[in-house]
Amino acid sequence: DVPKATEPRGDSDGPRRGSLCDRHCATINNVQGDLGDLGYHLHRPRVPPALSPPSCCQQHSDEVCESCVVKTTLTAENVVEANKLSNNYKFGFKKWKSHVTARPWEDRSEIVKELYSDLNVIRGSGGSTVTCGNILYLLLFGWWLSLLYVLVAAMMFVTIVGASYGWLCWDLAGYFLWPFGKVIQKVEVPKSHRALGTCEAGAEASGAGENSALLGGPVPCRWRPWCWADARYWQRAGAVAWLCLGYPALVLAHGLVCVTAWLLIVLIPVAKLSARTAARVLLLPPERVLVRRLRMTEVPLEGEVILCCYRAVNPYYYKYAVDGINVFAVNLLPLVLVTLVLGYVDSHNHLTSSPIKFTLALLSIMPLSYYIGMAIASISAQSNFAVGAVVNATFGSITELTFYITALIKGSREGNRCYAEIVKSALTGTLVGCVLFVPGLCMVIGGIRHQEQRFNSRSAGVSSALLFLSVGGVFAPTLFSKVYGKLVCGECHNVTQNPLGHYLCHNCHFDLMENNGTLYYSHVQPLVYTVSLLLPAAYLIGLFFTLKTHSHIYDIHISDCHMPGHHHSAVVHWSRWRALVILLLSTLCMSACADLATEHISPILTNSTISQYFIGVTVLAMVPELPEIVNGIQFALQNNLSLSIEIGNCIAVQVCMLQIPILVLFTIFYPTNFTLVFSDLHVYASMFSVVLMNYIFMDGKCDYFQGTVLVMVYFILLAVYFFAPSPSGC
């Protein structure tokens, strides 16, 4: 959905020079790709002044053109979008692909314009209407909807006073059996004909629009209210019979079709068809509704076109948005309400079981994560840097922290150490998944469209250095306990029956509580607190380094010359106050869903044959990150792999430098079983993932093969977790 650029207009010399420079900049910068609809230009070497065109954008000077060639330029549609783009490249800020402002209608592509049409546009060339999607409509909705109209028509004929509505239902029965290539038109009845009370006047009114070169075919004479002596009486009586007998059943049927088609997304045209029929067509007087079949002609229609549909399925409806909200997030929002009602009303599991409630609660986290992300992006784009930084730092990890804290509270109340181990597995799974799976998947999908993709190796190097630091700090207490802790085993068996032979031991672990916990309380715990203070400090230093003193490593420049047609004020989807309210409500619902998920995870942990390690590193770790993964894939498809990589790196850095210290701080005020001592499997998997990621990102370019390597290593680690025995205490 890329708006087409037009050449600037001005003086006789200005347009020629400006357009040459713009084409020159576009040729240079589009070699490596763009940001799609926002015109992202990569950094290129300086062009000698003798070879560089004279001007760039609206200011025709050599300096401006050279800055276009040298710097990474982000051409935004308005100031709000420019702030959002700039925030995408800031370390520690959420990367957001979708627009936070409404795009001008004239800049939309024809595909997108068709998505938002009201199904009342007649095409010049129809083509064949026999398609797989239209046949699918016939099988799913068309046959029984047409049959229902026939039954309602028969019922209206029986009432006699509603005979005119019976003829209308008869016409609509044929229409909804196969509505493609047909049109429903609202016609105007002349006042002189409305006043007549004879059947001849009715025949004259029916024949007024009988022949049309476009529509073709005569309109048969129907029973009309004016064919009776007292037209007004029969018209009112027929309307009452229609509203009491026929209309409710048809509205219920169309409502069912509308909801079903909307949930299927690709059938949204059918949902629009049903909604428009129930809201307009069925409420019109029958003499003002005409159903005709279109024919190839150039004569325009007389009267308003209410419905004109050509196909039932449109695969591009995954781009559809309602008030800036993607249609998938809109469709998943009722799932949140169902989850909350079932979870808190059916507390004794009379209606559903615990595994179903756990699954619903986990799925409800996905749309809530989307709403939280969009609210953060909207607030940051409309605020200054300080407010945006505070909002991102406060709510950026709220999804994961809510689940972790509720799980730790439940484990502390029940005295079950398994919840703490699940939290550790989820933390490790998020770290490994964001380091291996997210960038690897983006490389594979982006590599299918682009043979080789490049990214900013310097900015990736900053995140990699912070990852090395954070992983070393997080696992420092674990390594300390391995060195100074005492190995204790639950039970040991002599395999060779020889006192000096080999022993097979089970449930071995390093005991930190020897001598009344002297080692833990005197050495390990102070180390944990020290690390928890140093890691956030390192995160703040990284922010100051990338955003203040060395912001040039990103080489980002927001262009002052907006795209053609964008000289209007920005219309934001969500204002700051609305975004703040949605952010708070989404956070509240997230807390409730996390509470339900931890409440009903116990049967899964106790009765499942799958290792609790595997459940933690997959389901609990990656499901809340699905909106971020989708954003990364969209950036990779538009050849902007830098943001795809930064999405995974920022999440991994926040896990180690913000989430884990916050959990340690929480355990100080609310004692739980959570200690910053991980199993060997978590340590080895995390360190190996960080080392491999740094090796892949070393040269600043990648392809789908390197992405495949990262994804395969991630699946190998998942297999290790799958076959690993459950942690002690579970």
Automatic annotation (TrEMBL):
GO terms for molecular function: calcium:proton antiporter activity. It holds the Pfam family Na_Ca_ex. Keywords: Antiport, Calcium, Calcium transport, Ion transport, Membrane, Phosphoprotein, Transmembrane, Transmembrane helix, Transport. GO terms for cellular component: endomembrane system; vacuolar membrane. It is found in: Endomembrane system. Its main location: membrane. It comes from the Eukaryota. It is a multi-pass membrane protein. GO terms for biological process: intracellular calcium ion homeostasis. Residues 357-475, 579-721 form the Sodium/calcium exchanger membrane region domain. This is VNX1 protein. It comes from Circaetus pectoralis. The lineage of its organism: Eukaryota, Metazoa, Chordata, Craniata, Vertebrata.
